Amino acid sequence: EENGPGTLQPTLVIGAGFTGLRILQRLRKHLGDRFGAEDRIPAVRTLYIDTDPDALAIATADPAPGLARLRPEDVYAARLNRAQHYLKPRLSGRSLIEGWFDSQLLYRLPRNPMTMGLRVFGRLAFCDHYRPLIQKIQAELEACLAPAAMTTTLGTTGLALRSNRPRVYIAAGLGGGTGSGMFLDLAYTVRARLKRLGYADPEIIGILPVPPDGEQHPQTLANVYASLTELHHYGRAETLFSANYDDRPSLLRDTAPPFRQVYLLPGLPGGLSNTATPPAGSTPTQSPSLSRGSISLSGAMRNAPMNARSSGVWSPSRSGAIGTASALASPEAPPAADRDPCTLGADVIRLDLLTGVGRLIDEAMPARPSDSNLSNVRTLGVIRFGWPRGEVIARTQRVLAHSLVDHWVSPSPDHIRSMIPNWIGERWSAMGLDPGHLEAQFRQVIQNTAQCHVESTITAMTNPLLPKGWLNRLPEPDRVSVVVDQLRRLIGRPSSASSPQHQTEVESALAHFADRLADVAATDARQLFSELFELPDFRPAGTEEAIRQFLAVLDQTSGIFSKQAVTLELASGSAFDLLVGYAHFQRGMRKPSAAEFTDALRRYPETQYQAVIARAQVHVFQYVRSRLIDLLSNVETCRHRVEGLLPLLTAEATVGHHLATQRDLFLLECSSVSESTKRFLEVLNDDDLMALDRRVQVTLQERHGGLLPACMNATDGLADILTIIQETTRAYLDERLGEVDLAGMFWQRYGTPDAIGREMARAFEEAQPALIGPGPWTKNEIAVFVGPTGLGGDPIREVAVAVLPPTILAEETRDEVLLLREYPAVPLAALPQFGPVWAAAYRAAYEIQQTTAHTRVDITRWVDVDSV
């Protein structure tokens, strides 16, 4: 075991039921705003378990404001089955429900089985799914305990290690059927699993919201009363927890309390609060709406030029689908209440995990009873002043990521006109496609093959046949026949390219060399254009346009030499025919004149030689063209696939907004998240877009070998590319925004020390735990002030010291001002949830409904909190 001065330790947060889901989503929203995607902090894992299909669908759907979407792999569906499933005997000959479940209750299951708010069905679902569920929990524990996971998390967060010992949080509302039905079995199962991993006295913490006093739904009242009774029952040192979940020898026995610490948090009124669809007669819990938040941007950002623009590549609203003032700057509504129980539950975890508050409170906690009797629980209240940095970055990210992809798939006219033609001219010669260079190479190949200087050899062959003297007499046909045959064997006969069997050694060597040269040039061209795909200046749209323009140059050049080859071959053919005709001269045939013979003798070898070279050049151009046509098809396919990311980025603009509070801070001319987002966008320019593109490319190169391979080989609909773009954009913007002057925001909001003092005092009163009123437990109250230090922060701390109790503890942070008040030892018996109305509903669950609010019938006597 390793320990350090920091705050981080391997953590698994399990949410059971709908309330557990909301706590997970609040926590993930905060972690995502601060650190990015889940795989950036792999030492912090989340697992959601539920029986309700609607709630399971909500977990991975577009989230409400202030929430995050869970990944499908973080969700476990513990769905209930039909009654007959539970009556069938298993390998041991016993049914799953034998010994602990009232079989008559099975017939209350509806056609689509749900808990209907009955806790016993929540435990039934746990038992039915025990084996795969415990394997999933084991996998999550191993994942967060991996040394590489903690190394990555420490690097991402910049925090220090507190311990490599795991901590498990179990979050469940006690008013519904799923969470309250399985929270104790979950705790004992995780305890057993951690013990098997070698951790004695496992660190398991319960986060258990309960409805406040005055809740009217009878089933909820009975569930809470029974849940707290069972918590007290198993919290007693002498009580044995025993369970056998399946046919295998898996009897679980434990005499220790299920949790090391339990937080009871005040929930909201609302019937069966951990179901996605509350039953008739209950008051559904409303999702808090957005409020007008305001923030201050960093000094670096304030000093950036507001009109920073260069070539016009960067434009937040360039595509028209997304604009800085519409889809991504989501509307804010009136302020929401700070006392959301799910936010409070998430705050307990994040303060433990990411700040020094958890360690500070642990050190100030009163000593645990020697008998480890869990007769006391913890409750707290939190008031936070902060600025929605995460939401500003998230909204800006949506615009910038959309513009980045739009830049990839939409070519810039200025870029095409100014850059691509010059680039093609430079690369044309570099790839060896300059006609003059090709001709020189081909002449050298012909000379090497013929082992002579071809032009000199041709001159030496033809000069003796030229008519000389005043008579201009033609040479003998036999002599002409011999020379023509020698020339044909050297440079070929006209149109021999279409007849490979008639090709000479020179022509064959030239064809083979042209093939190799074309293949090299085509490979170089494909490699070059593939590399363009990975460059911010080109990307899919620019690469596609560059290929098209390159093909146009190839077509133009190839057309010129094709026409030239045809002309040369016609000239060579007519001259060759004249010479062959004379070589086979017979009486009665027309003799060519001396001038005609001389012209043909000179024209045939010269034009044939040039035609052979021209055909080789055309072959190179056409071969390169055919290979680039294939590449162009791939690039077009990739561009269309990448273009499919734009609607996803547009749709994301309406998802996961900020859950604002009355104490959001702002500074300067910004008075809302929307205005802050606009201001941030105003300072971004082409350099930012190019810098972001380069960072995205680095990750694409590491994971896939580049954007082109990622597009061509993607089997997940480019989901990974989308994730890379989003995560990299968020990280870049977080760095670009820099540190903000939170203390300056605070002074701007409240103005004077007196006003700050009044607000601090008011916030301290509001932070009083709402679950229970004053009593003896208040003497152990732990209060913590969290705030910035430094030039602006120290005066705020001085004001806090002056108006807050002298016993208050202090902790430093850079991005929030927070007041926390905790009652660390509240007796269960003192809770209003054990009052007469709750007790009456608990008794009525059996007397009227002929059922029990407990999770099992094999416990004949549950030890009541009032028992001695």
Keywords:
29 helices; 4-stranded mixed beta sheet; 868 residues; 12 strands; alpha/beta; elongated
Topology at a glance:
Layout: E1 11-16, H1 17-35, E2 44-50, H2 53-60, E3 75-77, H3 83-87, H4 119-128, H5 130-145, H6 147-157, E4 167-172, H7 178-196, E5 203-210, H8 218-235, E6 241-244, E7 251-254, E8 261-266, H9 299-302, H10 341-354, H11 357-364, E9 376-386, H12 389-409, H13 413-418, H14 420-430, H15 435-450, H16 454-462, H17 477-491, H18 505-533, H19 539-583, H20 594-643, H21 645-652, H22 673-682, H23 686-704, H24 707-713, H25 719-737, H26 742-750, H27 753-766, E10 782-787, H28 793-803, E11 809-812, E12 816-827, H29 836-847
Parallel strand pairs: 1-2, 1-4, 2-3, 4-5, 5-8, 10-11
Antiparallel strand pairs: 6-7, 9-12, 10-12
Helix pairs in contact: 1-10, 1-12, 4-7, 5-7, 8-29, 12-20, 12-21, 12-22, 12-25, 15-18, 15-20, 16-17, 17-19, 18-19, 18-20, 19-20, 23-25, 27-28
